[in-house]
Amino acid sequence: MTNRNNLRKIREERMISKMELARLAGVSAATIDRIERGETCRMETMRKIIFAFGFTLAEKHKVFPD
């Protein structure tokens, strides 16, 4: 099952590398890569990425649309 998201788009717009986003979110670069390819991830991982981009949980749809 795949999960459509805006992770790569936002990361590239902000000129952040996968490694840098992974460091900010406290996850591995491989996790970032998998999510960008559309694979699913845990809710906790989504939360970490949303906060790493500076969004609130109310803005989660900007990164992970339903």
What are the SSEs and their pairings?
Layout: H1 7-13, H2 18-25, H3 29-36, H4 43-52
Helix pairs in contact: 2-3, 2-4
Structure commentary:
This protein has helices at 7-13, 18-25, 29-36, 43-52. It is an all-alpha fold and 66 residues long. The chain has one domain: 434 Repressor (Amino-terminal Domain) (Orthogonal Bundle), CATH 1.10.260.40. Helix 2 (18-25) crosses helix 3 (29-36) and helix 2 (18-25) packs across helix 4 (43-52). It starts with 6 loop residues before the first helix and ends in a 14-residue tail after the last helix.
In the CATH hierarchy, the architecture is Orthogonal Bundle
Largest sheet, if any? none
Radius of gyration equals 10 Å
The number of distinct structural domains comes to 1
Write the element-wise H/E pattern from the N-terminal end onward.
Answer: HHHH
